[in-house]
């Protein structure tokens, strides 16, 4: 199924729009020396909406208004540029193409959405290259002018695809330096490699930044423990070590002892991250044993940790298990109000795998509304696959109809929506929710019907 989306027309429209908008800005700039433009901030929701990027431009004169020591950081920071335009293509035309692109991405499986989005990024690379060539050939921009495609998730990769090798060395030498440095570090013995990478945690410049170092430490696995454990004794740095220890997983007795000791001597955010690490490593019991000596928010953070998005940072997260959460709710009810706030809808929940569906389904029958809210939310993921969908969709429909908690009924409707057209057979269930006694449920039902295009009575 190839679809009928007009990729060629889309590319021509965006290229012409970029050239037109940059030309207009340069001409209005009255002689300013524009050195770069960028397509930036491609907003998307996986298996959902995809937008057009913002168009940003900056000139040498604008950059020179800042102190010399700040210019290197601001040179490619589009949020600080003088010209940042989200209406560069025209509101109606942009809305129409966004609607058509989103429809194309969402017409099949989640895998199709991902393929469509990456095809879109590749097309934007070509738009940048072609628009830059036209701007140079038309005399609007000089040979040093660059047009970038910027994206937080694919930052380095997209810049490398847009620029020539010479431009990359001139404007982003850190990318080449980083590749060379990482290759050098990879050849070191594990102990030396871990020590170097730990030294780069918190670094925002240089050939290896903090994010790259953290990823390399996760990849290093237990060989990173000897370099990370001493960090637990350093105020303001213990949290980084604790998080990485949890991300790596596979703790030995030494790691557990070190985290337990750090729990007793650290404070503030360091202590919270240590408690969360113990919980994510399956040792919430060690936190609860000391609950009387810990601030309530530290205990709550630890209890909630395995159910939040932080869990997904781990190389191999522990399987979803609602028993610890249910046990705390039942045996330590004083923590429940703060747990409800910490795990409120809209916060980042963990993303489950098909192997965890059984536990999430069991959570739908929990006597605790907080567990049911979490379970009904994490089951709203179409990427779990059609087989899971055939099992889960009827259960979400039942929750939308029968759960005694209105927030669970509302979340069940929203989870059905995230299954997109797979959930359309449940439109009558959602229509029935238009008469729900809770306003929040009625509003969610009306939104579902509008989004699914099934808001007309059958």
Overall pLDDT score: 93
- Strands of the largest sheet, in order across it? 3-2-1-4
Number of strands: 4
- Rounded to an integer in angstroms, the radius of gyration calculated over CA atoms is 26 Å
Main sheet makeup: 4 strands, mixed
Number of helical segments? 24
Helix-strand makeup class: mainly alpha
How would you describe the shape? flat
- The portion of residues assigned to helices is 55-70%
Give your account of this protein's structure:
The chain starts with 6 loop residues before the first helix and ends in a 6-residue tail after the last helix. Helices cover 58% and strands 4% of the residues. It has a 4-stranded mixed β-sheet. The mean pLDDT is 93. It is flat and about 75 Å long. The protein is mostly helical and 458 residues long. Helix 10 packs across helix 12 (238-248).
List the helices and strands and how they pair.
Blueprint lengths: L6 H22 L5 E7 L13 E6 H4 L4 H7 L8 E3 L5 H15 L4 H28 L8 E4 L5 H8 L2 H7 L1 H14 L3 H10 L10 H11 L4 H4 L9 H11 L4 H13 L2 H13 L3 H5 L7 H9 L18 H9 L4 H7 L14 H7 L5 H10 L7 H17 L3 H13 L8 H6 L6 H14 L6
Parallel strand pairs: 1-4
Antiparallel strand pairs: 1-2, 2-3
């Amino acid at each position: 199924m190839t679809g009928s989306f007009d990729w060629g027309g889309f590319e021509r429209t965006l290229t012409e729009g970029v050239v037109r908008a940059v030309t207009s800005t340069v001409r209005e700039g009255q002689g300013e020396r524009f050195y770069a433009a960028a397509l930036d901030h491609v907003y998307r929701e996986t298996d959902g909406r995809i937008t057009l990027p913002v168009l940003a431009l900056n000139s040498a004169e604008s950059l020179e208004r800042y102190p010399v020591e700040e210019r290197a950081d601001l040179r490619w920071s589009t949020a600080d540029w003088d010209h940042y335009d989200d209406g560069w293509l025209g509101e109606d035309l942009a809305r129409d193409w966004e609607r058509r692109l989103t429809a194309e991405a969402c017409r099949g499986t989640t895998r199709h959405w991902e393929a469509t989005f990456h095809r879109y990024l590749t097309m934007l690379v070509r738009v940048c290259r072609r628009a830059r060539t036209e701007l140079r050939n038309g005399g609007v921009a000089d040979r040093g002018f660059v047009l970038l495609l910027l994206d937080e998730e694919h930052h380095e990769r997209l810049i490398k695809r847009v620029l020539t090798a010479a431009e990359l060395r001139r404007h982003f030498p850190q990318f080449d330096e980083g590749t060379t440095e990482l290759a050098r570090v990879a050849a070191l013995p594990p102990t030396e490699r871990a020590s170097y990478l730990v030294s780069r945690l918190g670094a925002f410049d240089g050939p290896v930044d903090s994010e790259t170092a953290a990823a390399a430490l996760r990849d290093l696995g237990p060989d990173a423990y000897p370099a990370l454990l001493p960090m637990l004794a350093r105020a303001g740095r213990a949290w980084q070590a604790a998080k990485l220890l949890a991300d790596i997983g596979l703790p030995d007795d030494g790691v557990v002892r070190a985290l337990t000791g750090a729990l007793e001597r650290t404070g503030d955010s360091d202590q919270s991250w240590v408690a969360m690490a113990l919980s994510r490593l399956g040792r919430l019991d060690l936190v609860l044993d000391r609950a009387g000596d810990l601030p309530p928010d530290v205990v709550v953070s630890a209890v909630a940790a395995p159910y939040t998005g932080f869990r997904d940072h781990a190389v191999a997260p522990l399987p979803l298990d609602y028993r610890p959460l249910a046990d705390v709710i039942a045996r330590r009810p004083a923590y429940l109000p703060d747990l409800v706030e910490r795990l409120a809808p809209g916060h980042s929940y963990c993303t489950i795998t098909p192997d965890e569906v059984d536990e999430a389904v069991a959570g739908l029958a929990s006597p605790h509304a907080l567990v049911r809210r979490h379970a009904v939310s994490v089951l709203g993921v179409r990427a779990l696959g059609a087989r899971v969908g055939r099992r889960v969709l009827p259960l979400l429909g039942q929750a939308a109809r029968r759960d005694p908690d209105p927030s669970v009924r509302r979340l069940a409707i929203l989870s059905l929506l995230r299954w997109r057209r797979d959930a359309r057979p449940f439109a009558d269930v959602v229509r029935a929710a238009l008469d729900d006694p809770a306003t929040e449920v009625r509003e969610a039902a009306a939104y579902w019907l509008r989004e699914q295009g099934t808001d007309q009575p059958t």
